[in-house]
Amino acid sequence: MATQHSRTAARLMISPSVLLLLCWMIVPLAMTVYFSTLRYNLLMPGSNPFVGWENYQYFLTDPAFLTALVNTLLLVGGVLIITVIGGILLGMLLDQPMWGQGIVRILVIAPFFVMPTVSALVWKNMFMNPVNGLFAYLAEFLGLQPFDFLSQAPLLSIIGIVSWQWLPFATLILLTAMQSLDQEQLEAAEMDGAGAFSRFIYIVLPHLSRAVTVVILIQTIFLLSVFAEILVTTNGGPGNASTNLTYLVYAESLLRFDVGTGSAGGVVAIVLANIVAIFLMRMIGKNLDA
Amino acid sequence: MGRITLDQVTKSFGAVEVIPPLNLTIDEGEFVVFVGPSGCGKSTLLRLIAGLEDVSSGEIRIDREVATHLPPAKRGLAMVFQSYALYPHMSVRKNIAFPLKMAGMDKAEQDKRVDYAAGVLNLTDYLDRRPGQLSGGQRQRVAIGRAIVREPAAFLFDEPLSNLDAALRVGMRLEISELHERLKTTMIYVTHDQVEAMTMADKIVVLHAGVIEQVGSPLELYHTPRNKFVAGFIGSPKMNILEGPVAAQHNASAIGVRPEHLASSAESGTWEGRVGVSEHLGSDTFFHVHDTGLAETITVRASGEMPLRHGDRIFLTPDPDKIHRFDAEGLRMP
Q: Which helix (H) or strand (E) holds B71?
């Protein structure tokens, strides 16, 4: 692509796909913004008058909104902490030479391939169910009262389920990062008198910082929009105890059929996601610089 | 301090014995070079001394104390790695101070020692940089700095110059030799480059397949190689080894003549051949001589002015006092 001519040709060639992608993104966004300014309820068909900021006012003053916001942040933060720490520990275990390494690695990665609805249902019915669940059996075996996870600690239970799904991803990325660590560096640190713990703190962890950053950024994008796990386990309840922003938007637009307020919630969610992204890049973005 | 003794040390990886029983004494303050072709076990031997590999049997003593099963940090040795193994996320100052920090030394003493090492190695201006911002030679010096701040009983160098370009290598060679003069600490240096070995060592250990072929000063090895392997390995270009009738004339199974101990002439001499490739170095010219009937190629060193060209006839005369004789086992005959 050296000459002026070939560059022009290249631009012409990619323009259709660029235009298509642009429409793909712009049209839904524009329609969401547009709907968010209308009184648009599917239960009251007919005219959809322009109401300005009214939908935003309803959404932001809804008592469920603050709960949902806090829940969203708790969910994202909790899963991030569990998966990053767990991923580092699992990665270190899997980095050890052992018999059957290949199979063990596949087993570790397996949860990532189970779709969210299925894994949430398996957890709900086979593990956390207070009557038939494995945890209930275990509690009874130990002579304890079975714990009803999804109604006693709904948000914690969901954090657990989502962490289980994302742990393999974090483990995989951190494991490959660990394997790229120069062994001579560890040997040099050993010669320098660093014990196993010091080697981990001063050599391994700094080496992993970039991989940890990638894990945090990618997971945050997906964790802000966790939905299926909540829908099939708690339906956001009891009350609003496990409702996050995504689920609140769903409840507004498809349970209360209020497309206008739902759209307003969607726009609010976009803004909040960007605020989170800015904070994240401020805090850990420098790790990505070479 | 700084005397290292290996007593019947062996090393096996699974069923493969890379180092058969081996004895070696390294005296205090000596500059010892382990040299040998790649895969001869010289790096393994160094790692055994460092404690990065466990010995399979035998005993290692450092300053008369048995160190066979001591962890690397407790042996009081410092090592410079081939890849330098600097910590990329730490500044040069922190890199050099790392062993001191691990030893729990107080901050003021750390700074003092780092500044001293930086002064010795001309690193004072770079103390706040990261290793990634340094050139190869500077990284090498940081690695050495990290070793000297600990004031170890001995330094171990694992092919430290092999990643540098030729000019820098010569410079660093001098710097390391000078450092040894200055510190008077025992140094063990591993290399496959016999020029490095010859120029730096007090004592050279020639290794071949895990076995010590000969131990001695550079000139001892050059003048009286114990066998054909050492004869061929030490000296550049390689010694010419001749077998057959010409060796029988000297009552040996093989004779060796170094290129610099052959007189060359265009008119007359003992052996006759044809000039192949000639390598002009300015001061000297190396002729690769073919069709002598003695060996496929004989290398000879001539003065830079010798006017022979490709295909010319050349006559060679060996210096009779400098012929090395070897018996059927390849050992030197007196």
A: none
